[in-house]
Design goal:
The chain has about 550 residues and is α/β, with parallel strands linked by helices. Helix content is about 50%, strand content about 15%. It has a 6-stranded mixed beta sheet, sandwiched between helices. Strands 8-9-10 form a 3-stranded antiparallel beta sheet, with no helix packed on it. α10 (about 360-375) packs antiparallel against α11, α12 runs antiparallel to α13 and α14 (about 430-445) packs antiparallel against α15 (about 450-460). Residues about 350-355, about 485-515 and about 520-545 have low confidence and may be disordered.
């Protein structure tokens, strides 16, 4: 600020000096032309009074600009903002067993990777973290700042809690304290993240909110790797508290997931259990639960500084600058009519000036996408319809209309539009994959599981990276297998003495969906649990397949 004021003062003084010199020169030149009339054509002079007013106006404008810096007043303002959110409290196990490598790269890193990818879907909700081992403490306070939560998650480590062991009970008691502190908060979810080891003899407290249990690890187990963060040296933990280089030694501790205990915890709190080691089911369940829950209305007090007071001085300064320009035109002996007309149009007819849209079609699409993201699907469909006047027969616009129609429950219209994309000559494979995915969702909503499976398979053929289609196939096949298992077992019991080859051929003929099912199974073979466990000790696992 001081530098600006010094520079402004120097500019004003320099302006006064230059203006004085020019006025003096103009005065002498005027006197000289009066004495020597023949010099009038050779010397150019200006009206002395107008020149004086011009420089006075310029100096006043500069002085007012400088004064505006002194007149700025800083006022502390408090503003209350109200927003709706759900409280999500993660209770994370940071005991040494969370460094087991049966899940790549280890159990704790797997949780970090999953939750960091889930955070954007939880925007607007308050998130907090409690960590525990032998003791527990609040690691991340409840906040809506996702960047801060991300920093806390990335700094999680097994060396955080000095007391060894795994005491879930004390961590859940701390959850109860947090909930009691926020008694007005009714909508909250507690997510327990642990491998379930060494919890059996604990007495768990009651919780009044929703509870989800995320298990990390495998029942086959894996060795625990520990490395010094500063030196990077380490190895695998043994029963005698030493470190060895090989994970296959007889004395190496093998940490195993206690699935039964984790399911017991979920049942005690009427919650849901998910194993997040290789699948993101728990993440999807959390997102769906948060969307379904009734939001808390929370008021937040924000304090900020409001700087004001410079506007009158800046406005006067602008007027003096305009006066200086008008006087400059008068001094040059040119008619100021054009300048005055221009200023009149700018200041007095500006309310009639309208902006022309350079890209009305693109703007309509942009508004439609924004309305869709805001879940205003009726408005979104209207905007996409407007854009059709500018983009004739564009398959991307047809897909946008189909997506809006699907969200509005207009399944027949969405189905027709999606099928139109599949036969469109301009539609690329990615767009056709999305159209097939939409068709699969429509058939699934209508209860036509076989058609839904066909559409999802076609979607994957067009784009093998269409993760949503893989996920939907997985859910549909799980449901169909669970419903078909009892009847299949009965059939096998009745046909024990039949020829196996004959029964196999008959089943293939009588069950036309079996061939489709085998196609799906072959497609999903690289992503099955058995394949993952076979590769557990050899080579990296691509967890991105399940996102």
């Amino acid at each position: 600020m001081k530098t600006i004021i010094l520079f402004g003062s120097f500019t004003i003084l320099l302006g006064i000096l230059v203006a004085s010199i020019k006025i003096f020169i103009n005065f002498k030149a005027t006197q000289l032309t009066k004495k020597h009339i023949e010099l009038i054509s050779r010397l150019t002079t200006s009206n002395q009074f107008l020149l004086f007013l011009r420089y006075i106006s310029l100096l006043f404008a500069l002085i007012l600009c400088l004064l505006s810096l002194y007149k700025i007043k800083s006022i502390d303002v408090e503003s209350t903002k109200e927003f709706e959110s759900t409280d999500i409290l993660f209770v994370v196990d940071v005991s040494l067993s969370m460094n087991a490598i049966d899940v790549k790269p280890n159990r704790l890193k797997r949780f970090q990777d999953l939750i960091l990818r889930t955070l954007p879907e939880l925007k607007g909700n308050r998130i907090g973290i409690i960590v525990f081992a032998g003791q527990s403490f609040s690691f991340c306070p409840m906040t809506t700042d996702l960047s801060a939560v991300s920093d806390y998650i990335q700094s999680l480590g097994v060396e955080m809690v000095g007391t060894k062991g795994t005491n879930l009970a004390i961590a859940l008691k701390r959850v109860g304290k947090v909930l009691n502190k926020n008694q007005g908060i009714r909508s909250s979810v507690t997510v327990i993240v642990t491998d379930g080891e060494d919890h059996e003899k604990q007495s768990l407290p009651d919780l009044e909110n929703e509870v989800m249990v995320w298990g990390v690890g495998t029942e086959e187990g894996g060795p625990i790797e520990f490395r010094d963060p500063s030196t990077g040296k380490g190895g695998f933990v043994t029963y005698d508290s030493n470190l060895v280089d090989s994970p296959y030694g007889n004395n190496v501790i093998v940490s195993k997931l206690n699935k039964e205990f984790l399911e017991t915890i979920a049942e005690r709190y009427n919650g849901e259990y998910s194993n997040i080691s290789f699948y993101a089911d728990g993440s999807f369940q959390l997102i769906d639960k948060v969307k379904e829950m009734k939001k808390n209305k929370i008021q937040r007090l924000e304090k900020f500084k409001n700087e004001d007071g410079a506007h009158p001085y800046l406005l006067l300064s602008l007027l003096f600058f305009l006066l200086e320009r008008l006087l400059s035109i008068g001094i040059q002996k040119k008619s100021p009519l054009k300048m005055i007309t221009f200023l009149f149009c700018v200041f007095f007819i500006q309310n009639r000036v309208e902006a022309w849209e350079l890209d009305p079609g693109g703007n309509a699409v942009e508004r439609g996408v924004k309305s869709y993201l805001d879940q205003n699907f009726n408005e979104s469909q209207k905007e996409f319809s407007k854009a059709k006047d500018y983009f004739q027969d564009d398959p991307r616009l047809i897909y946008n209309e189909a997506a809006s129609a699907y969200q509005l429950g207009k399944y027949k219209e969405a189905k027709e539009l999606s099928e139109k994309i599949l036969s469109h000559p301009k539609a690329n494979s990615n767009l056709k994959s999305k159209a097939n995915l939409t068709l699969g969702n429509i058939f699934s909503k209508l209860g036509q599981k076989e058609n839904a499976l066909n559409s999802y398979v076609e979607s994957l053929k067009q784009n093998p990276k269409q993760i949503a289609a893989k996920k939907n196939i997985e859910h549909l096949t799980k449901k169909s297998q669970s419903s078909q298992n009892p009847s299949e077992n009965q059939k096998q019991g009745n046909s024990e003495n039949s020829n196996p080859s004959e029964s196999k051929s008959q089943n293939d003929k009588t069950n036309p969906s079996k061939q489709k099912q085998s196609d799906i199974e072959r497609m999903f073979e690289p992503f099955s649990n058995d394949s993952i466990l076979k590769n557990m000790r050899g080579g990296p696992i691509d967890n991105e397949k399940f996102w």
